[in-house]
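Quick entry between incubations.
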Amino acid sequence: MNPLSTIAEISKHEGETVTIRGWLYNLRESGKLLFPIFRDGSGTIQGVVPKNAVAPEVFEAVKGLTQESSVIVEGKVRADKRAPSGYELDVANVQVLQRVPDNDPFPISLKEHGVDFLMEHRHLWVRTPRQAAILRVRAEIIRAVRNFFDDRGFTLTDPPILTPAACEGTSTLFPVDYFDEQAYLTQSGQLYIEATALALGKVYSFGPTFRAEKSKTRRHLTEFWMVEPEVAYAELDDLMDLAEALISSVVQRCLGNRRADLETIGRDVSHLEKIAAPFPRITYDEAVGRLQEGHARGALENKFEWGGDLGSPDETYLSAQFDKPVMVHRYPAKVKAFYMEPDPQRPDLALCVDVLAPEGYGEIVGGSQRMASYDLLLQRIREHNLPEEAFKWYLDLRKYGSVPHGGFGMGVERVVAWVCGLEHVRETIPFARTLHRLYP
RNA sequence: UCCUCAGUAGCUCAAUGGCAGAGCAUCCGGCUGUUAACCGGAGGGUUGUAGGUUCGAGUCCUACCUGAGGAGCCA
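Done. Structure below.
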């Protein structure tokens, strides 16, 4: 029996006959010479089948074989300068497990397709080299995030996905029937990990979140993954240090381990090679100044007034001024969530930070120091007309040993889109859920 | 919710108001180094839906449906 090999590790078997289990990616025929390209999930390799060098039944099995038919291939690994990967397979035997029917071929040909067609066939689209590479980068990013926190003494604490009420009272939530009671899918685990942070010190959550907003942009999904660290005794500067270290670590891991995949995707990695701490930090006040200057120069359509939240064009303009992620901190409290700690120097400001990715990818991190005072928090809950009863447990955290603490959320899909240089976040997750996409 | 754009062969797209086409895919044939292989041939259409203008509508008008991009909101 031949040794089994993945295509990614084929170079270790040069000169040997190996077995590969996979699918036919493409077939080029030239009379009595066939060039099947096989894929196995780890990569692709071209096979060579000359009619006068193989058994007749092997030649016939490959001749006219349809794209994506499943095959077990035996062949001898040979280095070849003409091959993109440097290796070819001299095919000795092919077993066809299932032949894709001639009259119902694999829908995703090697030619161009439209977005809607590809999303309708997402279950098959993920087989293409580019999509597989993106999913490997996503997995690398997730692994890098978990290692980052695990190595720093953080404890993973999973918040509930079914929740009784809105966390922030702003976003639209997906309602769920919970034994005749109204429940919602979580839009953030933050409030819950504040509780576990005060129990365990440094915690993080990593899971799906849901927003029922009717957003139709390249940056939005209705179901997306978020990583949220929360740290007891952390103040705003500590959070910015943490976010900066996390993002740098993630990017460096991708450059170190997934460079070939980034190349397959067509990413210009020179942008990523600049990503290292420290990142520029500017106050909201300074950002407003830059935006007003941009408007004066005609680079921005609308004049930005102090007090408003940054719009998408504003974020794009600001981030274009830096080649690293830029951290904008201390927004006006009234445009931010009710639970953020006021700046003691300027109580109209919140101790919060948004991290804007370069190249127009927008906000990838949003976080804040949390309000520590019981009385002020209760006052804010009432000002926002939030159901006081639902926040009783959250207020308890300020009653029993309140401390300064804070954290942030990082949107995994937006980070993947930025690292891979993608046009749209729908390619960053195996099965994207958007306003008009629930199938497959 | 608002603004803009699009919908023609399985896919990607053409077609000045005047015979509905090409490339790819599929099928048939050819080719011993192809790189989204190439060459020759064949089949393949309710032009998103409904109405209107016109001698004549894929094309112009109205409504609707579906989708995409953007705004708002957010990660």
